[in-house]
Design brief:
Elements lengths: L1 H25 L8 E4 L2 E5 L5 E3 L6 E2 L15 E4 L5 E2 L12 E4 L7 E3 L2 E3 L5 E5 L7 E3 L6 E2 L11 E3 L6 E2 L10
Parallel strand pairs: 2-4, 3-5, 4-6, 5-7, 10-12, 11-13, 12-14
Antiparallel strand pairs: 1-2, 8-9, 9-10
C-alpha cells in the first residue's frame, strides 16, 4: 500500500508543478518583443526599441508602463495599436526623449485633434505632437485632464487652457526648456 500512496503523492506533485508552470507562464511574463501584457493591459515595456509599436491586442496602457520597464529614456516614438482605447494618466512617465505619439491607422478608439492625441471622449489630453516651430498651443475645449508627459520636450512658451481643464498632472510640461 505504501507504493500506492507514493504514486498518488507523486501524481499530486506533478499536477502541482504543472499548474504552477502554467500560472507562472500566464502571469506577467515578458514576451520576446519586450511587452509585458496581462488581460490585454500593457503593464510594462522592457524592450530596447526607440520606436515602439504597441501590439494590436492591447486595449489599455497602465500607469508607469514605460517607466517601470527600464528603457523609457531611449523611447522616441510610440505608436498606439489598433485597440488601445485607454492610456492611463502616468503611462508615459519616464519617456523624457519622446518626440511623438501616433495612432495606428486602424485605431478608431482614440482621436487626434490639433496635433494632440486625446481620449475617445476628448476629456484627457494624452500627448501633444508638437513641431519645432510650435511655441503656443491652445488646449481643445472639453479637455478636463492633461496627462503626465503630455507636453514633454515641446518648445512651447505659451499654453492656453480652456475653463474645462480641471487637472494638470505632475510632469505634464517636464523638460520644456523655453
Amino acid at each position: 500500500t505504501w507504493i500506492k500512496w507514493v504514486s498518488i503523492a507523486a501524481c499530486f506533485c506533478l499536477m502541482f508543478v504543472g499548474a504552477f508552470a502554467l500560472i507562472a507562464n500566464f502571469v506577467s511574463t515578458p514576451s520576446t518583443d519586450g511587452f509585458v501584457i496581462e488581460d490585454k493591459v500593457l503593464l510594462s515595456y522592457k524592450g530596447n526599441d526607440k520606436n515602439v509599436v504597441i501590439p494590436d491586442n492591447v486595449v489599455k496602457i497602465a500607469n508607469y508602463a514605460f517607466r517601470d520597464g527600464g528603457n523609457a529614456e531611449a523611447i522616441e516614438t510610440i505608436t498606439l495599436g489598433k485597440k488601445v482605447s485607454v492610456v492611463e494618466t502616468y503611462a508615459l512617465e519616464g519617456c523624457v526623449n519622446l518626440k511623438a505619439v501616433n495612432l495606428s491607422e486602424k485605431n478608431d478608439t482614440l482621436k487626434t485633434q490639433n496635433n494632440a492625441v486625446l481620449s475617445s471622449d476628448g476629456k484627457q489630453l494624452i500627448y501633444l505632437n508638437a513641431t519645432e516651430n510650435l511655441t503656443s498651443y491652445t488646449v481643445p475645449n472639453g479637455v478636463e485632464r492633461i496627462g503626465s508627459y503630455a507636453f514633454v520636450n515641446s518648445n512651447l512658451t505659451e499654453l492656453i487652457f480652456p475653463d474645462s481643464v480641471t487637472t494638470l498632472d505632475s510632469l505634464a510640461v517636464i523638460f520644456n526648456d523655453t
